[in-house]
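Need a sequence for this fold. Nothing fancy.
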């Protein structure tokens, strides 16, 4: 019997982090009698007088949003990181070790419309969100104590998102977070050994094989990474190696907006619901020297398993030993690729 990735249990290497995922394709026939999540009805008004994020409304801390008509950002009223935290560290015999962390947290409202999500926005309106990401990145990276800027979106109650108004967040920190630390080591090592970015080489391979592609345009590729852990996990990778979102040209920004719209529409089309996920871009640290190997990309981590109501739990073996999945990355990529690029609500 020959080893076959579609039939036999195996582990796959995440080349960005050096971690492994256990893949058990033979388990896909397992019956499901577990927890079924209920879905909230999605019949939001264009403006909700009780929403903290809608234009003109009062937020939880008493500040009032302007009557914004374009993407709008403000400092998070409950910031996890604060700019004026004193520097310091704590070490009790190397057993109790801590250090202070400062930073800035912002909230970004993607649109004044309470009832939309990214796939329901026009490409030019998504492009305005990309403009704001660039402006925020430029401003935050101009502060020398900021070392990393995490731009992300948490979408859906199931992800613990507190408000359905389309929004994302930015956390800028005085230290380099763990995931970025791991990806920095792997990408710099590959670049110094091969003279090309790890993700340029990986993208070349994926474009040749065509097994895990979901969507492609002139400047970006959306794919299910070979090492995906979450069943519907995807990645957007820029065809040109850049370190930062601020480097994208006008054409690249439109292409990124189109990729974001198409990928999130495909996600919604999968189970005909507003598809929950945590997504965010990974880019090089700032104010900390050269990062020649770094290649901008975006991760999408959706929690759903096999339907709109069945959530994947990372428990048991996965918490204690190693993440695991049943459905292969190749099967999921084919499923997402074959779904329409247009949002289902357009035809319903
Ligand atoms: P989620 O993306 O997880 O829903 O978080 C929304 C953020 O918005 C959350 O971090 C902030 C919360 O602190 N927020 C405000 O800053 N002001 C408010 O009035 C409500 C929510
Ligand atoms: Zn709102």
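Here you go.
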């Amino acid at each position: 019997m020959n080893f076959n990735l579609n039939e036999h249990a195996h582990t796959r290497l995440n080349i960005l982090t050096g971690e492994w995922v256990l893949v058990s394709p033979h388990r896909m026939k397992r019956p499901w009698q577990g927890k079924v999540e209920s879905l909230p009805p999605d019949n939001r008004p264009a403006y909700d007088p009780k929403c903290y994020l809608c234009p003109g409304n009062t937020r939880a801390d008493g500040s009032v949003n302007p009557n914004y008509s374009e993407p709008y950002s403000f400092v998070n009223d409950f910031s996890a990181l604060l700019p004026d935290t004193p520097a310091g560290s704590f070490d009790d015999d190397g057993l109790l070790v801590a250090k202070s962390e400062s930073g800035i947290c912002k909230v970004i409202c993607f649109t004044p419309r309470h009832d939309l999500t990214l796939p329901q926005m026009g490409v030019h309106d998504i492009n305005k969100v990309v403009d704001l990401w660039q402006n925020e990145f430029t401003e935050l990276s101009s502060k020398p104590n900021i070392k990393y800027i995490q731009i992300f979106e948490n979408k859906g109650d199931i992800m613990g998102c507190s408000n359905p108004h389309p929004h994302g967040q930015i956390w800028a920190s005085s230290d380099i977070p763990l995931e970025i630390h791991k990806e920095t080591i792997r990408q710099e090592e590959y670049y110094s050994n091969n003279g090309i970015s790890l993700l340029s080489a990986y993208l070349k391979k994926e474009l040749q094989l065509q097994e895990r592609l979901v969507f492609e345009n002139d400047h970006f590729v959306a794919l299910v990474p070979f090492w995906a852990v979450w069943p519907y996990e995807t990645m957007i990778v820029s065809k040109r190696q850049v370190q930062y979102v601020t480097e994208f040209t006008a054409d690249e920004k439109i292409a990124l907006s189109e990729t974001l719209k198409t990928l999130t529409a495909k996600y919604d089309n999968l189970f005909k619901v507003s598809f929950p996920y945590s997504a965010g871009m990974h880019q090089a640290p700032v104010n900390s020297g050269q990062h020649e190997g770094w290649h901008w990309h975006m991760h999408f981590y959706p929690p759903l398993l096999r339907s709109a109501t069945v959530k994947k739990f990372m428990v048991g073996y996965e918490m204690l030993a190693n993440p695991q999945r049943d459905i292969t990355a190749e099967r999921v990529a084919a499923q997402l690729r074959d779904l329409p690029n247009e949002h289902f609500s357009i035809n319903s």
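For context: The domain at 10-28+43-347 is CATH 3.30.428.10 (HIT family, subunit A).
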